[in-house]
Each structure stands twice: as structure tokens, then as C-alpha cells.
Amino acid sequence: MSETYPELVGGLNLAIDSLRKGSPGTMQAFNGLAREALKPGALDLKTKELLAIAIAVATRCDGCIGFHTKAALKAGATREEVLETCALAIYMGAGPSMIYASETLRAYDEWVVASRPAA
To answer: Could you give the CA distance from residue 56 to residue 9 in angstroms, rounded to a whole number?
Structure first.
């Protein structure tokens, strides 16, 4: 992957917007599912986003890594928490998950840089 995660997510958002316009019912249903799944309950939002990162690593989904590391950062996840999440994903997914865990840390660091105010 040659682009940064903020660039990847930006491009995906454009493609997803096109999907929303072309298939609004499906996308409304998906968004409702996402809202329900992420609603704080026994697990808080940060924990749910960390779980989503682990699944993204295990399933090798670049876009999922981008979206969920950004959301985890917004929910207050620290780099150390993301690292522990990636460690668990490596344990569960072996070698390929190790590569994607490395990418997740890169995504987190890129989102930190991208979220800083311009000098």
C-alpha cells in the first residue's frame, strides 16, 4: 500500500458515498447495524473499536484498519492499547496478522499526525 491511511479512508469515503446513492436501503440498514453494534453497553465504544481492529487485522482489511484505528483514537485508545490489541490479533492470526498489525500501528501513527493542527 503506497498511500497513507488518511488518504485511503478519504478515497473509500467517496466510493462509499457512491454506494449510498446507488443502494440507499442497503446502506441505511448497514449504518443501523453499525450504530447498534457500536452502542455502548457492557462494552464501551473504545473497547468495541479495539475489537474491530483485531478483527480487521485478522481478516486483512486495509479499509477496516483505517476506519477503526481512526475511530479508536477518537474514542480515546492509546497506542499501547492498539499495540496490545494487535498482539492478540497476531496470536490469533499468526504471520499474516503480524503484517497487518504492523500496518495498524502505522495507521494509528498517521492518524495522530493527521489530527494535529497545522503549524
So the answer is: 14
For residue 1, what pLDDT is reported? 63
Q: 10-64 pLDDT, tens per residue?
A: 999 999 999 999 999 999 999 999 999 999 999 999 999 999 999 999 888 999 9
Q: Which domains does the chain have, with CATH numbers?
A: 5-115 (1.20.1290.10)
Q: What is the C-alpha to C-alpha distance for residues 92 and 85, in angstroms, rounded to an integer?
A: 11
- b/e per residue 93-117 (b: at least 16 CB within 10 A): beeebbebbebbeebbebbeeeeee
CA-closest candidate to residue 60, choices 25, 35, 28, 93: 93
Pick from 74, 81, 69, 54: which is nearest to 109 by CA?
69
Tell me if the pTM is above 0.90.
no
What residue type is 20 in one-letter code? R
**Which of 24, 94, 5 lies closest to 57, judged by CA?**
94
Q: pLDDT tens across 50-61, in order?
A: 999 999 998 889
